[in-house]
Specification:
14 helices, 7% strand, 7 strands, Glycosyltransferase
Length: 381
């Protein structure tokens, strides 16, 4: 980590990390081995999926992901034991098939792959390889992309998948076989072509001809409207492209991550608030914030800072610190009896019931970003 990070910020960094450790030492006992999504009356609850047949939800890996970071830092066996209990519960999803889609990377990178990387648990390695195989099976050879979701929209892909393909890079390393990596890079190349706009903003959903990969149309998705700039999508792109660069060495991915980062940081600076809007092009008469987009972007900015030379490094690290300090000041949940770390999350611009709330993935990426700045060993990716 750059010396810059330790200059003028160490006291704050130590303070926020100690608060995270203290709160999680308490709340982890009350949350236990569930798969939380958001809070109700200050208590984390699973996703309230109205479709009983839908099975698992894409966020199931984030709480055990937090537990693995804390175990890696503290050595507290409670964190490991609880994370492993959740991982075993997720076997029901791993072999259900119909409920799974492109988000298997989110779900098993932070659980099984983390477990294997930290403890050497071979059963966890096999789970991770199964999840990677499921994701690889979604690759559309004719179109050159990993298909999103299930159902009738067979030509759809989404920017979020850039954060799932790291499990494919990991799988190739495990078996010394490039076939998984080739699928990851093909999808990343398609994302460069059809998601990334010239100004550094990105589409959320792209519909393509499933036989040729030709773009048919785009959708605003969880953003405000078609052609807008959903901030969490920007963050998935920023972080996802730099992870593909780290795994492949292809500088085109690093350049893409930097373009998205510049667009993202310029918007925050212009508005004078480092907690991002839910959509960077949202109308001024309905301003929504999304702390989760900030936490994800901070993780990606830190990784870009690690990849560039000394003349560029501080631009990205300064951006990450500014975001994290804003999240700490504006979104940290001070109530010690409330199980969330952050509030201010927005799942979707048009989802009226999920505005300004805690979301487990916001907590996860906040913990990950602070841990990165502390330069703890991050073994999850």
């Amino acid at each position: 980590m750059s010396d810059f990070v330790l200059t003028g910020h160490q006291e704050w960094l130590d303070n926020v990390w100690n608060r995270i450790k203290a709160k999680l030492a308490k709340t982890s006992r009350s949350i236990g081995a569930i798969m939380p999504y958001t809070t109700k009356n200050g208590k984390y609850m699973p996703y309230p999926n109205p479709d009983a047949n839908a099975g698992c939800w894409w966020t199931e890996g984030f709480w055990p992901g937090i537990l693995w970071i804390m175990y890696n830092e503290t050595g507290d066996e409670f964190y490991r034991e609880t994370a492993e209990q959740i991982e075993e519960k997720m076997d029901e999803f791993l072999y259900a098939f119909d409920c799974l889609h492109h988000d298997v990377g989110f779900m098993w990178l932070l659980t099984s792959v983390a477990n294997y990387r930290i403890t050497g648990n071979d059963r966890s390695r096999r789970r991770g390889m199964t999840a990677a195989s499921l994701l690889a099976s979604r690759y559309n050879i004719g179109g050159g992309f990993i298909r999103a979701w299930n159902g009738g929209n067979k030509g759809w892909a989404i920017i979020d998948c850039m954060m799932n393909i790291p499990i494919l890079y990991w799988a190739s390393e495990q078996i010394d076989d490039k076939r998984f990596e080739k699928i990851a890079r093909a999808h990343a190349d398609k994302a460069l072509e059809v998601f990334l706009r010239s100004d550094g903003s990105v589409n959320h959903i792209v519909s393509m001809d499933s036989d040729t990969g030709e773009v048919i149309e785009t959708f605003g998705g969880q953003g405000c409207y078609n052609g807008s700039s959903w901030s969490r999508g920007q963050s998935w792109a920023l972080y996802g492209f730099v992870l593909s660069y780290i795994r492949s060495g292809d500088v085109n991915y690093l350049d893409a991550a930097k373009r998205v980062a510049h667009y993202f940081l310029a918007d925050l600076a212009l508005k004078g608030d480092f907690v991002p809007d839910c959509d960077l092009r949202q109308p001024k008469d309905k301003i929504l914030k999304d702390s989760t987009a900030g936490a994800i972007a901070a993780c990606g900015l830190i990784e870009i800072g690690r990849c560039v030379d000394e003349h560029e490094k501080d631009l990205y690290l300064t951006g990450a610190i500014n975001i994290l300090k804003a999240l700490d000041e504006q979104c940290w949940v001070k109530d010690e009896d409330n199980e969330a770390l952050l509030t201010g999350g927005t799942s979707s611009y048009h989802g009226a019931d999920e505005h300004n709330i805690p979301l487990i993935y916001g907590d996860y990426y906040f913990v990950e970003a602070i841990s990165k700045l502390k330069d703890h060993k991050m073994l999850l990716w």
